[in-house]
Amino acid sequence: MGKRGSQRKKQSAADKQAAQAPKLGHPKSMVIRIGAGEVGSSVSQLVQDVRHVMEPDTALRLKERRANKLRDYTTMCGPLGVTHLMLFSRSESGNTNLRLARTPRGPTLHFRVEKYSLCKDIQKAMKHPRAGKEDFHTAPLLVMNNFLTSDADRERLGDKAPPKHLEKLVTDMFQGMFPPIKPENPLSTIKRVLLLNRESPNDDDGSCIVTLRHYAITTKVVGLPKALRRLHAAEKIINSKEKKKSALPNLGKLEDVADFMLGPSASGYTSASDTEAETDAEVEVAAPVTRRVLSKKEKQKAAESETRKPSSLSSRPRVEKRAVKLVELGPRLRLRLTKVEEDLCNGKVLWHEYVNKSQAEVEHMEAVWDQRKKEKEERRRIQRENIEKKRKEKAEKGEEVDDDEDEDMEDYDEYDMDDDVWHDEDANEQEDLDEEMEDESDDG
After folding, report:
1. 29 close to 58: Cβ distance less than 8 angstroms
2. How far is CA 61 from the centre of its chain?
3. I want to staple 274 with a disulfide (CB 3.0 to 4.6 A). Which of 121, 143, 226, 268 is the partner?
4. How far is 420 from 418, CA to CA, in rounded Å?
5. What is the distance between the alpha carbons of residues 350 and 108, in angstroms, rounded to a whole number?
6. Environment class of 31 (CB within 10 Å of its CB; exposed 0-12, middle 13-18, buried 19+)
7. Is 322:279 a contact under the CB 8 Å cutoff?
8. Considering only CA atoms, which of 208, 238, 157 is closest in space to residue 336?
9. CA neighbours closer than 13 Å in the CB half-sphere of residue 385
10. DSSP-derived secondary structure letter, 318
């Protein structure tokens, strides 16, 4: 019996570089539970709902394990082309947190999930919930509001106003998670919309609170009464294979079809309830036209008629008015920005909501991070020298040198292996501040 060959296939350097480079205009994301099932059933369902929001460019069936570390996910971001990470976790005090990070070099935004509602809760509250699987074949349309503080609010807040570069960074982070809109894409491909609204900052603090809503976009023809639309729908049902008697209007007790169109007590006028939505929600789009397959003679006649009448109305595209309606899909999120880091979950703090440092403390932290950067570069240099030394020893012995394995080892740094150990420092600091304020109020 012949010996089976190895199933492992080596990847060339060109293929590896092509796999690591993400497609232009198509960002990919991974929504992860840190600690797997330890976050609880509600947060686990919230993670699954957020994955549906990020469809189709996300890992929908990602299975986390309790033993998985953050390094396990970051090392796979390059080969898979993942550009953003959304890390949900739960602190010891019970707070739900979200870290939004851009791979591979950051930055990282830390959010506190103050409130959230699951998709199933929203569907239970709706009379006619929408369950369309075709809506998730394309990415949602991103709409952002009030992310930049106006000059009047900045003057009113003074030093408490958030920095301009911070607002620009948060805006770019959210925009980079979804593909940009292209003029050549048809409007029919846009099935969903994701609304992000930043609440206006209070006078007490310049906090950044973002609310998230997820909707499906539905359209219907306007300008027709409800009764006429039912007759048009009934004609489609009669011509189709599947006939539903409940959808057909009953005209047996009426003397004329006008009684059905206008109603017995309408006196020639339609009611206000039969009118469509407001004119602001109406758009004009090209109507789909079904064309019959013409024979050769019919094509010749059509060509002759077009040459005779070059500016005929039949050659113009047919336009119809449609009313746009949003149906909420869920989930709902209320996020509070607490911290911004420079690197991927383990870098220099660029902004903190609860901690304000003096200029001397900032300069001291800059010196500490410069020293860490130099130590990291020195470790990299020593690691590269050790790799070259091993290659030479293998070459002298006549052994095969595995370049891919050595290149992968260069990406690891012992100093950064514990970057997944993350505690809710912001929650602890906020709880300490609340306790101090309560003590002061009691003393007063």
Report:
1. yes
2. 16
3. 226
4. 5
5. 10
6. buried
7. no
8. 208
9. 6
10. P
Residue that has been written with the tokens 């070459």 in this structure: 395
- Of 359, 370, 376, 358, give the one whose Cα is nearest residue 412: 376
Token pair of 133, please?
Answer: 């699987």
Residue 315 has phi, psi (to 5 degrees) of -80, -15
Helix, strand, coil fractions of the chain, as percent rounded to 5 = 40, 20, 40
Query: Which amino acid, one-letter code, is at 134?
Result: E
Assigned token pair, 411: 């990406």
Give the ranges where 104-150 is alpha helix by DSSP (H): 119-125
Nearest to 422 by CA among 84, 37, 162, 110: 110
Residues 6+ apart with CB under 8 A from 310: none
Among 13, 133, 140, 5, smallest CA distance to 402 is for 13
Q: CB count, 10 Å around CB of 111?
A: 24
349-367 as b/e: b if 16+ CB within 10 A: ebbbbeeeeeeeeeeeeee
Rounded to whole angstroms, the Cα distance separating 419 from 414 reads 10
Q: What is the pLDDT along the chain (444 residues), one digit of tens a residue?
A: 455 554 555 555 555 554 444 445 589 999 999 887 788 899 999 999 999 999 999 999 999 888 888 888 988 898 999 999 999 999 888 899 999 999 988 899 999 999 999 999 999 998 888 877 788 999 999 999 999 888 888 888 887 788 888 899 999 999 999 999 888 888 888 899 999 999 988 767 778 899 999 999 988 777 666 666 666 666 555 555 565 555 566 667 667 766 666 655 444 444 444 444 455 577 776 666 666 677 778 888 877 776 665 554 455 567 777 788 899 998 999 999 999 998 888 888 888 888 777 778 777 778 887 888 888 888 888 998 998 888 888 888 877 766 554 444 444 444 444 444 444 454 455 555 555 544 554 554
| Vertex 257 angle, CA 256 and 259, to 5° | 75
Residue 65 near residue 36, CB atoms below 8 Å:
yes
Is the previous residue joined to 56 through a cis bond, with omega within 30 degrees of 0?
A: yes
Residue 429 Cα to chain centre, angstroms: 30
Q: For residue 326, which amino acid is it?
A: L
Placement of tokens 């690891």 in the chain: 412
